[in-house]
């Protein structure tokens, strides 16, 4: 934290501000604490958040829609945020549903790109539960695109990841993605 505080004070000076000005005096400490929270997933495995697993013989899809998330773009260190939908077809094991959202949160808490984030969440579910298959879809607005550069507010990026073998033939990646997108 002290290293981040020093870097932020230097940054403020580099842009022509005074880190000792009343409104900025505590900013380096606040930013250091914020970075500690925003990047608390660095070095952790999102599958470890899926730690409540139960034996269950269901082979019908489990779907979790409209889970809000935020992360930080690794290219500009600006936020991107949106909504995630997750689905898996159990193969004798199910997870406590909140654990899927925790896995997403953990994967978000590191410098990220949305494409990798989507795959990391799908891989975490696949590894933790060994389901027949998994589908993950993220839709997000990127402030690096809205605030700077092309400045297109409201544009949304959609990424998907599908994993698994779907051996029973009742479901496949396309049918899971269709369930994620279906209006409730």
From TrEMBL:
Its EC number(s): 3.5.4.16
Metabolic or biological pathway, per its Swiss-Prot or TrEMBL entry: Cofactor biosynthesis; 7,8-dihydroneopterin triphosphate biosynthesis; 7,8-dihydroneopterin triphosphate from GTP: step 1/1
UniProt keywords, alphabetically: Hydrolase, One-carbon metabolism, Tetrahydrobiopterin biosynthesis
Chemical reaction(s) catalysed: GTP + H2O = 7,8-dihydroneopterin 3'-triphosphate + formate + H(+)
PROSITE patterns linked: GTP_CYCLOHYDROL_1_1
Broad class of enzyme this protein falls into: hydrolase
GO MF terms held by the record: GTP binding; GTP cyclohydrolase I activity; zinc ion binding
GO biological process: one-carbon metabolic process; tetrahydrobiopterin biosynthetic process; tetrahydrofolate biosynthetic process
Residues of the GTP cyclohydrolase I domain: 4-169
GO cellular component terms, A-Z: cytoplasm
Protein name, entry field: GTP cyclohydrolase 1
Higher taxonomy: Eukaryota, Metazoa, Porifera, Demospongiae, Heteroscleromorpha
């Amino acid at each position: 934290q002290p290293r981040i505080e020093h870097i932020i004070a230097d940054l403020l000076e580099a842009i022509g501000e005074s880190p000792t000005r009343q409104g900025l005096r505590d900013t380096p400490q606040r930013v250091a604490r914020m970075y500690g929270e925003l990047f608390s997933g660095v070095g952790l495995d999102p599958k470890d958040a899926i730690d409540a697993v139960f034996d269950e013989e269901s082979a019908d899809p489990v779907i979790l829609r409209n889970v809000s998330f935020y992360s930080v773009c690794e290219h500009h260190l600006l936020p991107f945020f949106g909504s995630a939908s997750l689905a898996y077809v159990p193969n004798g094991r199910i997870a406590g549903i909140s654990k899927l959202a925790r896995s997403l949160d953990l994967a978000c808490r590191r410098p990220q790109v949305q494409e990798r984030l989507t795959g990391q969440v799908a891989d975490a579910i696949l590894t933790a539960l060994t389901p027949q298959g998994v589908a993950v879809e993220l839709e997000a607005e990127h402030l690096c695109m809205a605030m700077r550069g092309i400045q297109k507010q409201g544009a949304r990026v959609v990424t998907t990841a599908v994993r698994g073998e779907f051996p029973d033939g009742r479901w496949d990646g396309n049918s899971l993605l269709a369930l994620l997108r279906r209006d409730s």
